[in-house]
């Protein structure tokens, strides 16, 4: 079972890498930030799988913090943009 | 003695079934993650990408959490998993709505600018904007 969890975590890691391509290319800031949102969600999944594979329950708390921070980063991005600090 | 034996068999079956279901759910979750990423890479407008990302991604995480939940050994752990998924869902809904608004505003602005440019005579500054827009479409 452990190797299965790690294999799935590896697949999710590959999807994160592919998401980074969109962060690099994305024409607008919205695209980049959306791809970062994708990275946040898949990192939560990876952490939960690794918590099972390595039997480290602390990783679940890390996943909880990641889920919180994804919301904060997106909200801060939109607020700062709406305030007119960033150019288009 | 026979009752003990039957109880043991039942326990073994439950372990086997829960592991099978957990492998199934986690695999389905990984498939949804891959589909969401492919959508983010291949779709051509920001709103389409938003659509691909929010649905497939959160459903994938839901399946992974469902599979992981079957391996939990206490109800507190199940509650924590439910909390993580709920938090991700709520934050994704709020952030996606805000970003979708911004992406829509940007598209409207671009359309308005293009209309204005069609009516006016082309100038050198308008040419430079047009060249950047062609670069965007190539992506």
Judging from the principal axes of the Cα atoms, what is the shape of chain A? flat
Q: Give the topology string of chain B: H per helix, E per strand.
A: HHHH
Principal-axis shape of chain B equals elongated
Our count of domains of chain B comes out at: 1
Total of helices of chain A: 3
The strand count of chain B comes to: 0
Low-confidence stretches of chain A: none
Strand content of chain B: under 5%
Domain count of chain A, please report it: 1
**Biggest interface and its residues per chain?**
A-B, 43 and 47 residues
Kindly provide the radius of gyration of chain A, computed on alpha-carbon positions and rounded to a whole number of angstroms.
15 Å
Question: What does the model show?
Answer:
The complex is a heterodimer of chains A (88) and B (139). Chain A has 88 residues and is an all-alpha fold. Chain A has one domain. Chain A is built from three helices and no strands. In chain A, helix 1 runs antiparallel to helix 2 and helix 2 runs antiparallel to helix 3. The model of chain A has no long low-confidence stretch (mean pLDDT 86). By secondary structure, chain B is mostly helical. Chain B has one domain. In chain B, helix 1 packs antiparallel against helix 2 and helix 2 runs antiparallel to helix 3. The C terminus of chain B is likely disordered. At the A-B interface, helix 1, helix 2 and helix 3 of A face helix 1, helix 2 and helix 3 of B.
